[in-house]
Amino acid sequence: MKFISVILLAWMSIIQAGQDIYTCKNAKINLYSSAPIEDIEANSNAGVSVYNATTGELDFSLPIRSLHFPKALMESHFNEDYMESDKYPKATFKGKLQEHPDLTKDGSYPISVTGELSVHGVNQMRTITGNLKINNGVLTMTSEFMVKCADHHIEIPQIVFHNIAQSIRIRVDATYTLYK
Amino acid sequence: MKRTIILLALLALSAGLRAQEKDVTKKSTSADSLMNAMNTDEKTGPVVIFKSSRMILSQSTETVRKKNLNFLVIHRFGDFAGSNGGGKTYFGLDAVSDVYIGFEYGLSDNLNIDIGRTTIGGLADLELKYAILRQSRDGSSPFAITLLGEAGVAPYGSYVAFSDRTAFLGQVMIARKFSPWLSLQLTPTFVRDYTSPLLYPGNQQQFFALMGMARLKLSNHMGFIIDYGHPFSSSRTTANGFYDPLGFGIEIETGGHVFTINVTNSRAVSEINYLSNTQSNYSKGQFRVGFTISRMFDFNHKENSK
What's the CA gap between A89 and A118, in Å, rounded? Predict the structure, then answer.
């Protein structure tokens, strides 16, 4: 009888261990590029992310069309001409946290995530650095990194070359809560 | 007793193992399935069917967005060949058939007010354009419908009554993007043109017409356009010297600007003029080079950002 209860306890602890999944449903993404004629900026708060604290796996997904520009025409060109959003509706990141932060301790930790960034249907292995803030079981990850248009086969024709920068700055701000 | 305990223990163990197994698969796929569950399909919003509001002859179902101003210069040169063309006019480039200068302003995303003036007849026009239906990305609306109402006045020249200076046009534009490479538009049209000269007996001043237009995407920034119109008018026959307007063109979009370089037999830019009075024929060399320049200005600059 004791044997059974031991097994039951062990079994329950296994289930317990499988629960360290954190999710974020409204990650803020900011896109910015500086160019001689005009700066281009877009914002979305429709990024979704799942962080598995047990394995360190971090998944991220952003619907491209959720990025909104101040100028309607700019948004239309962004989706139709550059990102081809009907063909490639999402930008994703599938990676793994290099660090194993103790999520029970409040604080701020520098982190780096290595994995595949998929934009415009082209995958790139990237190591992206950022910051993790833990506050009472709520995780906030922030990051700032550059994406080169050429790396993801986003073509900028010569005729509009001066309007658009070759590198786009991306800012991410995601707040995660424990998934039950 | 011992045996039953062992049996029970084994059962519990296997149950535990199975649960664990399930748990493991859950762990590795749960992130994916969670991601899938959380991902909302961004299949909302309208399909952008055309890159500009003016094609060659036709207007398109696209409207200028709210607080945006589209400045238009549409130009038709002289006859390329024939008696009025050829080398002596530098293949029509020395001559001007028609120039249209106009503005389109977005009162809302779907309602535009346009003003413009064209050389032929000195026709000044005022238009209201309203997109009543957009082709939707999720397929709930398979096509777009835009209504166009146009009133024109020819202020100069001698006419008997003021009504002889007026012209009206009503259009129902129906368009669909069939694939990223092909967009089509059909436009049933009604024309009431009192300015058209009564050159011959039986000239119809009111008639129906049908326009058809296709845009083929060549690249993300370039398209090929065919634009055609046919007036259903008993007086506008080939025997009377009338021909259907037909244009071919290349559209180049450079972010804010749209250029169209085209070839048409029609001398006129205004719908009213080219539907009621195209008397030039490709086979007589009466076709011309033309262009459209569109520049978009956006007046809701900083307001919407953040």
Answer: 11
User: Residues in chain A with pLDDT < 50?
Assistant: none
Which pLDDT value is given to residue B226? 98
CA B11 to chain centre: 71
| Residue B87: Cβ-neighbour burial (10 angstroms; 0-12, 13-18, 19+) | exposed
3-class DSSP assignment, residue A1: coil
Tokens of A102: 């103790």
Is A71 an interface residue toward B (CB < 8 Å)?
yes
Element (H, E) at B5: helix B2-38
Does A18 contact B23 at a Cβ distance shorter than 8 Å? Answer: yes
Which sign, positive or negative, has the C-alpha torsion B228, B232, B233, B239? positive
pLDDT along chain B (306 residues), means of 10: 64 52 48 74 81 95 94 96 90 94 96 96 95 92 96 88 92 96 97 76 88 94 95 90 95 88 96 93 94 91 49
Alpha carbon B282 to chain centroid distance? 25
Q: Are B126 and B91 in contact (CB under 8 A)?
A: no
- In angstroms, the Cα distances linking B268 to A53, A180, B231 are 69, 68, 15
**ipTM, 2 dp:** 0.71
Crossing angle (nearest 10°) for helices B2-38 and A2-17: 10
Contact A72 B298 (CB under 8 A): yes
Helix, coil or strand: residue A76: helix
Closest alpha carbon to B128 in B161, B104, B144: B104
The CATH architecture annotation of domain B68-298 reads Beta Barrel (2.40)
Q: What 3-state class would DSSP assign to B123?
A: coil
Residue with tokens 């998944």: A59
**Mutating which of B38, B49, B109, B134 best tests the A interface, going by the most A Cβ atoms within 10 A?**
B38
Pairwise CA distance, residues B151 & B149, whole Å? 7
Task: Give the number of other CB atoms < 10 A from CB of residue A56.
Answer: 16
DSSP H/E element including A50: strand A40-52
How high is the pLDDT of residue A44? 95
Put simply, the answer to whether A160 touches B254 (Cβ < 8 Å) is: yes
Domains of chain A by start residue, with CATH:
22-178 (2.40.128.110)
Q: Do B34 and A50 touch (CB under 8 A)?
A: yes
B29 Cβ under 8 Å from any chain A Cβ: no
Cβ–Cβ gap B220/A82 under 8 Å = yes
Q: Cβ contacts of residue A5 below 8 Å, gap of 6+?
A: none
pTM of the complete model: 0.80
CA dist B106 and A129 (Å) reads: 44
User: What amino acid is encoded at B280 in this protein?
Assistant: S
